[in-house]
Amino acid sequence: MSNQSASGQNHEQTQRAPDGPSSRVVGFVVVVAALGYFVDIFDLLLFALVRKASLTEVLAAQLVGKSHEEADALLASSGIWLDNILQTTGLLVGGLVWGVLADRRGRMSVLFGSIIAYSLANLLNAAVTDVAPDGPLGFLHAIGLGSAINQYGLLRFIAGFGLAGELGAGITLVSELVSRERRGFATTVVAAVGILGAIAGYFTTQFVSWRTAFVIGGCLGLALLALRIGVVESGLFIRAERMHVHSRGAFWKLFWPAQRLRRYVSTVLIAVPIWFVVGTLVKYCDRIMPSLGLPAEEKPSPAKAIMWCYIGLAAGDLLSGLASQWMRSRRRAIVVFHALTLVAVILYFTVAAHSLTAFYAVITFAGFASGYWAVFVTITAEQFGTNLRATAATTAPNIVRWSAAWTGGLWLALSSHTGVAWHAAAIVAAIVLPISFIATLGVRESYGADLDFNEE
């Protein structure tokens, strides 16, 4: 192998690419990756879609005697804990574990393992219940799992851990199998189809109980295992493995040298606004909109808001991915959508509270404006060499998802301090948006980049 410089930032080792699979096989991989991300999003947002219904049942004893406002506050804080903290922390930990395994053991092994983990967690989630201390399962009290809410929390963490491996491994596999000219189109298809999982999740929860919804989510994941059998491993990974390339999956190398660390941190930060919009402004709209003056009788439904937001996200992912191809620039596409996100957030705090119709219209636009996830995951896979690519492409999206923990937690803390939910949300927005703009400067342009290299 010979050494080459990557945009003057670090030296990389090049290698001759192996003969690739047929276009038919590659097309099948793209379809399966898209369906995998579809199930990923379906399961990832399932809790948010059934949050109020499920927690109202699980916390029924604690809600007795509480006022409407107190009940809403308890449901919101419990939702933040289970979703924004436990599930996203599972994503964070899982992202690291699955990413390292994908670079060391292969992309396919991660896709199988992660599916089994989150599918079983969702199936068990359907059966959470308070256990009688003197019953056959009374031993669960000894390990803190005697209550339904604690079981719920553990299973959301495990589900997050499992879900962390799906997107990164799938995008890495697609990026390494598809030609550099068509890579952006392929990852856009994966992201756009995957986002539709949220819409499918919404309509599913409208017709079945929350427990049945979790069973459906688990079964969808297990059904993916059959499709995965026909998916081929990445030729670039196989070559790196055969050549005993050093530092495969050495996640600490993402933090050194400083140039690589800056590239990695910048890649993460450019996408934080997406999960602030989804994780706080949309999921907790039933708390924020009334504080902006929307009449109580017109309080928005978080589940419906998620559905409209993800319709916008699907359109945004499709257009942002295509725009990055047309512009021949990932960075310029990101900048355009950052500007649109800023406009959408301003509209959220100024126009959305005029009526329920205005709110859902703004939420749809906010989803579209923050729908640059397709470009983000493509950039993440293109920024790093084969020996670290899956680690970066799996950890970065899950760190972004985990950002919903600190942005949601900060919003909750500021809400308690200021007493006004929308003031707190506006402060968090004022922190998140400028950082993402600046971070765009730290990623290198990767449109059409050759991925056949290793990081030194």
Q: Main attributes?
A:
mainly alpha, Growth Hormone, Chain: A, 456 residues, 3 strands, 72% helix, three-stranded antiparallel β-sheet
Would you kindly provide a brief summary of this structure?
Helices cover 72% and strands 3% of the residues.
Rg on CA atoms, Å: 22 Å
CATH class: Mainly Alpha
Would you identify the CATH architecture? Up-down Bundle
Distance between the termini: 12 Å
Secondary-structure element pattern, one letter each: EEHHHHHHHHHHHHHHHHHHE
Mean pLDDT reading: 90
Spell out the CATH superfamily. MFS general substrate transporter like domains
Number of beta strands: 3
**Percentage of residues in helical conformation:** over 70%
Overall domain count = 1
The largest beta-sheet arranges its strands as 1-2-3
Shape verdict: globular
Number of helical runs?
A: 18
From the 3D structure, determine the CATH topology: Growth Hormone, Chain: A
Low-confidence stretches: 1-18
